[in-house]
Design a protein that fits this description.
Helices cover 24% and strands 29% of the residues. With 395 residues, it is α/β, with parallel strands linked by helices. It folds into three domains: 210 residues, HUPs (Rossmann fold, 3-Layer(aba) Sandwich), CATH 3.40.50; 75 residues, SH3 type barrels (Roll), CATH 2.30.30; 82 residues, Elongation Factor Tu (Ef-tu), domain 3 (Beta Barrel), CATH 2.40.30.10. Strands 12-15-14-13-16-17 form a six-stranded antiparallel barrel. The protein is globular and about 70 Å long. It holds the Pfam family tRNA_Me_trans_M. One of its GO terms (molecular function) is tRNA-uridine 2-sulfurtransferase activity. Catalyzes the 2-thiolation of uridine at the wobble position (U34) of tRNA, leading to the formation of s(2)U34.
């Protein structure tokens, strides 16, 4: 089988290539040059040149053809511009999820297929399996990686059946220490290389500095909301339907109606996210203050003190139907149906017990326990056992 490997210059993709070679596949290694702006990377860092050199040395060591493909314009258009736009709206995007959906498993995969590839392989800690349904159709399953500390299935939550049918994740059965051990045994230059940090398309980067390239700083107020605010003591209404209850549980609190206290200044609400406590410059509190809401129109950040602040927690989240994606289309819920799942809305978050509900107007995820810092723009993903079955953008 002919396989194109996305060789990134890291240890994971290096061992991916080696394992496929050992299985007897015909390999071609492609390195993606992503969008890069030296003005926002950290000093003396030029990650793509170093990474491409490492990828080249791995390809030479394994004796496989190697090419660099320039995808910088595509990244700028589909990922970078999207990030700027989302932050400006007061949302919290996940570029890694978009990177996989829009680039690695779309344009990159199409490029690989144009080279005659049967499959595309990446160094993700995830697994793909398949079964045949009663109609003889092959159903592909996106499974969590065996290494619980490195499972990256969440980042792949927007992939579809066609993409999964062409994807290989050889290291999904391994742990990170096992991957490094294999790399050392065969003498790969990437064996001890540290994992990449920062955004998927730039490498090491200062996020606020990155955002300031297009989003103009503007001074605004930081307003503290107190735990005894009347906002948190309102009686829960009697609901006429489950949908009405979920709308109530997932809705945003309007802090503009609260009696808050101005306790500081910030340089732009668009540079912050829900649940953030660092970088606010707030003192004089027993516990840290966390951002619970942002008024983008008036450039106001609302904060509350402590992890247990009531405005920081919600029992449900809402997803617009147009932002809903099922990896397993055969499991898609019909109007009025529900399903018990395990769910998360951040990478590395422990999976939480939840129930998903489909209604004509929207889709909801209701958690058994209240969840901290649910932010618009994040991707929620849900699982049955270790299989990721669907995802959506939180509204």
């Amino acid at each position: 089988m002919k396989v194109v490997v996305g060789l990134s210059g890291g240890v994971d993709s290096s061992v991916t290539a080696y394992l496929l070679q050992q299985q007897g596949h015909e390999l071609v290694a492609l390195f993606m040059r992503n969008w890069n702006d030296a003005s926002v990377t950290l000093e003396d860092e030029c990650p793509w040149i170093e990474d491409s050199n490492d990828a080249l040395m791995v390809a030479q060591k394994l004796g496989i053809p190697f090419q660099v493909i320039d995808m910088s314009d595509l990244y700028k258009e589909r990922i970078v511009d999207y990030m700027f736009d989302e932050y400006q709206k007061g949302r919290t995007p996940n570029p890694d999820v978009l990177c996989n959906r829009e680039v690695k498993f779309d344009v990159f995969m199409k490029t690989a297929m144009s080279l005659g590839a049967d499959k595309v392989a990446t160094g993700h800690y995830a697994r793909v399996d398949s079964t045949i349904d009663e109609n003889g159709k092959e159903i592909f399953h996106l499974l969590a990686g065996k290494d619980n500390n490195k499972d990256q299935s969440y980042f792949l939550c927007q992939l579809n059946q066609d993409q999964l049918s062409k994807a290989l994740f050889p290291i999904g059965e391994l742990t990170k220490p096992q991957v490094r051990e294999i790399a050392k045994e065969i003498g790969l230059v990437t064996a001890d290389k540290k994992d990449s940090q920062g955004l998927c398309f730039i490498g090491k980067v200062s996020l606020p500095q990155f955002l300031q390239q297009q989003l103009v700083p503007k001074e605004g107020e930081i307003v503290e909301i107190f735990k005894d605010s009347p906002l948190f003591s309102q009686e829960v209404p009697n609901f006429s339907s489950k949908e009405e209850e979920l709308e109530f549980l997932s809705k945003k609190i309007d802090y503009r109606k609260a009696d808050g206290k101005v306790i500081g200044k910030h340089q732009g609400a668009q540079f912050f996210t829900i649940g953030q406590s660092k970088g606010l410059g707030i003192g004089g509190h027993k516990e840290s203050c966390f951002i619970v809401s942002r008024d983008m129109e008036n450039n106001i950040i609302f904060v509350g003190e402590g992890h247990s602040f009531p405005g920081l927690h919600k029992k449900a989240l809402k997803i617009d139907n147009k932002e809903l994606h099922w990896v397993r289309e055969d499991l898609r819920l019909k109007n009025g149906e529900s399903m018990e799942v395990m769910a998360r809305f951040r990478y590395r978050q422990e999976l939480q017990k939840a129930t998903v509900y489909q209604f004509e107007n929207a889709f909801f995820v209701e958690f058994d326990e209240p969840q901290s810092a649910i932010a618009e723009g994040q991707f929620a993903a849900w699982y049955l056992d270790d299989e990721l079955t669907g995802s959506g953008v939180i509204s």
